[in-house]
Amino acid sequence: MEDIYLKINEKALEYANYSADNLSALVKARSLSTGEKEVAAVLAGQMKNAGFDEVRIDKLGNVIGRIGNGEKILVFDGHIDTVDVGNPDNWTFDPFSGEVSGGYVHGRGTVDQKGGPAAFVTAGRILKELAFDKGLTLLFTGTVMEEDCDGLCWKYLVEEEKIRPDFVVITEPTNLNIYRGHRGRMEIEVTFRGLSSHGSAPERGKNAVYMASRACLEIEKLNEKLRSDPFLGKGTVTVSEFVSGSPSLCAVADYAKIHLDRRLTWGETIDSAVEEIKAIVGDQDAEVKVLNYEEVAYTGLRYGMQKYYPTWKMEEGSPLVSKARQAFTALFGKPPVIDKWTFSTNGVTINGMYGIPCIGFGPGNEVLAHAPNEKVPVSDLVTASAFYAALAYELAG
Question: Which of 19, 94, 183, 196 has the least C-beta neighbours within 10 A?
């Protein structure tokens, strides 16, 4: 194995510019959620040029590359949609230039998270050149709509494409650490219905803004009572939107709506989170509901799911985490840092819903995700591509 790891490291370094150029091309293909058609074509072309055995695009628009035909399935997953650039004045370079300079690839999506797919294409090329044939089927998925609804793409892959892998590596940015979980999340909407009256006589009405405001203050206090986990940390809740309405600006508001961002730690569930809010609302005329996501993909397919994204974590001694640690240590001569994400990933469905073992390992620092002046070190692409290839050998035994 030492010889194969040496060859993997050599090839990953040899293909540093190849990885950077592929990422640059992905960045130049703008790809907001539901608008990934161009970048999907670019990634599919890169997989074909790397010599993958099969490349196809499913009906939701996910790009699926395959190497090998083994009984066990290992998937490397990376979403190919991005958020928008925000205020362009906050950028010191063109967000879609894909410029490669100073040891970095620059632009929107370099970290979150086209760097992962660029690195796994290189890993696939390395494995093909090393004639990898170890009883594994390797799938490489460039997934869609993650920024709008994390995990939706994997709901489609599992339930519609019938892909049920044995292992998944999520290539979201981890600063080249091995991540084994993160908090879940959900989106809750609470609608309050009051009674309007003339603004000159508010006592005749029932002000929905006051109803909602009192609830908001109690929801803020709820943070003090939420559960905590030694690894994942504490559950949190925040009001992210407040909307109200009335017949006129001279009338008591008869309508108010708040939107809650709820982050769930280990042991918290959709039911427990909803019940907490219902207890705060009490017997007021209000409705508490978990929202749904349903949109039309760039392929024209309408698809959706409830906006509940379960908490997940892998035990540090689990077989996949252990194999990842062994591969990293053998490759780089030092033990990896084992940690977790702050944000949410496709792991919410891969492991949170379906119980499929998964870990995270990706190029880039997550603090640059969704931030201006996003860039990723080319050296991170080299490290990630080497790790992906080595992990395939490690899992194959």
Answer: 94
Residue 76 in domain: yes
Q: In 3D, which of 316, 170, 168 has the Cα closest to residue 230? A: 316
Of 294, 321, 339, the position where a domain reaches its end is 294
Half-sphere exposure of 233 (CA within 13 A, CB side): 13
| Catalytic-labelled residue, pool 58, 77, 146, 150 | 146
Nearest by Cα to 168 from 342, 318, 17, 1: 318
Count the domains in the chain: 2
Question: What is the pLDDT, as a whole number, of residue 1?
Answer: 63
Is 81 catalytic? The answer is yes
Indicate whether 131 and 103 sit together in one domain. Answer: yes
- pLDDT at position 143: 98
Looking at residue 268, which CATH number applies to its domain? 3.30.70.360
Flag whether pLDDT at 133 surpasses 90. Answer: no
Domain annotation covers residue 301: no
219 within domain boundaries? yes
Q: Is the per-residue pLDDT at 41 higher than 70?
A: yes
> pTM of the full predicted structure?
0.95
Domain span holding position 240: 184-294
Q: What is the pLDDT of residue 134?
A: 81
State pLDDT tens for residues 138-153.
999 999 999 999 999 9
Catalytic residue, from 36, 81, 112, 187: name it: 81
Higher pLDDT, 218 or 134: 218
Same domain, 61 and 161: yes
Residue 170: its H or E element: strand 167-170
Helix, strand, or coil (residue 204): helix
Mark whether 146 is an active-site residue. Answer: yes
Would 305 be classed as within a structural domain? no
Phi, psi of 25 (to 5 degrees): -65, -35
